[in-house]
Design goal:
about 325 residues; alpha/beta; 434 Repressor (Amino-terminal Domain); Rossmann fold; 3 domains; six-stranded parallel beta sheet; five-stranded parallel beta sheet
């Protein structure tokens, strides 16, 4: 592996000149800068992170705080983690993953130790201790999620409110007036995770605005819980002809199985939609219409926003990615 000494030797300059050329801390002749850059390219030199930290320069590392909870749905969680990593690598950045064990203490440690250039925050809660900490730290940060209080923050996320309305829009257009919603496990709502609450609240509000009968039930990842959720919706909505599932893949698979066991066909007897799903619904029986939740749609902009903050000031704001609808034939007019 090439060292800064090798670069200096090939470029015919001193080590300090190489450092100045790469950091931009002092003005040097353009011809000298070009020679240094050519030597860097030829040798494939990359400055050691520790040396950059000591010099007060960039480390080319982002901290990714992505807590793991007992109710975390690992496939979706890791899809977002990997998306952040891929986005960072496109800009020659590495990612330091902070899990729940480190908590806010780990975040404070890596930031105050100048280990990272910025922070990406996943799995945002309505009231999140990491956010209060970030407000006190002078470091670029982007949230993939929208907490209750967004003052001073840069956030990007899917527009879950628009997705909820889009769900009901398609069902209403097909003639449905009574629609139930199966959500995530109880513990996710209890700890204040922002996106399930936003979708639920928007769904209930949009249904009321459209003059539809709507109801909501949570479901844990087991058959009895999903069965109880379906029974609760049926009790609340005796005339229910539409079902929206904003839940994990296992819950949706179980719900479809229960409907089949009860002799309820999709979409003949019940129209079903999978909302904000990070997984494909093509393999379901039957395949479901879906509003996809694509990690790259939010994680790539989040990394780009963090990079912009590293390079300069970015005004606090919230960016919401509009939802899109994929038809797969699971919605039809209700049986008269």
């Amino acid at each position: 592996m090439a060292s800064i000494h090798d670069v200096a030797k090939l470029a015919g300059v001193s080590i300090s000149t190489v450092s100045y050329a790469l950091s931009g801390k002092r003005s040097i002749a353009e011809a000298t800068r070009i020679r240094v850059n050519e030597a860097v390219e030829t040798l494939g030199y990359r400055a050691h992170a520790g040396a950059r930290m000591l010099a007060g320069d960039r480390t080319n590392i982002f901290a990714l705080t992505a807590p793991l909870h007992s109710e975390t749905y690992a496939p979706a969680h890791m899809a977002f983690v990997l998306s952040v990593v891929r986005a960072a690598r496109e800009h020659d950045y590495d990612v330091l993953l902070l899990t729940q064990d480190e908590g806010a203490g780990g975040l404070r440690r890596v930031v105050t130790s100048s280990l990272v250039d910025g922070v990406i925050v996943l799995d945002v809660s309505d009231e999140d201790e990491r956010i209060d900490l970030l407000r006190t730290l002078d470091i670029p940060a982007t949230l993939v999620g929208v907490p209750r209080d967004t003052e001073g923050l840069v956030c990007v996320d899917m527009n879950f409110e628009a997705a909820a309305d889009l769900s009901l829009e398609h069902l209403a257009a097909a003639g449905h007036r009574s629609v139930g919603l199966i959500g995530h496990p109880h513990a996710i709502y209890d700890r204040g995770s922002n996106f399930p609450r936003r979708f639920r609240d928007a769904f209930l509000a949009a249904g009321a605005d459209r003059g539809m009968d709507v109801a909501f039930e949570m479901a844990d990842r087991d058959g009895p819980s999903v069965r109880a959720a379906l029974d609760g919706l049926t009790d609340a909505l005796p005339g229910m002809t539409g079902l929206v599932m904003h839940s994990d893949e296992s819950v949706q698979t179980t719900a479809l199985g229960i409907l089949r066991d009860r002799g309820i066909s999709v979409p003949g007897d019940m129209s079903v939609l999978s909302a904000c799903s990070s997984f494909s619904t093509e393999h379901f029986e039957p395949p479901l219409d879906t509003i996809p939740l694509v990690p790259d749609d939010t994680c790539f902009p989040a990394v780009a926003l963090a990079l912009r903050q590293v390079g300069g000031k970015v005004p606090p704001h919230v960016e919401l990615v509009p939802p899109r609808y994929i038809e797969r034939g699971s919605i039809a007019a209700p049986v008269a």
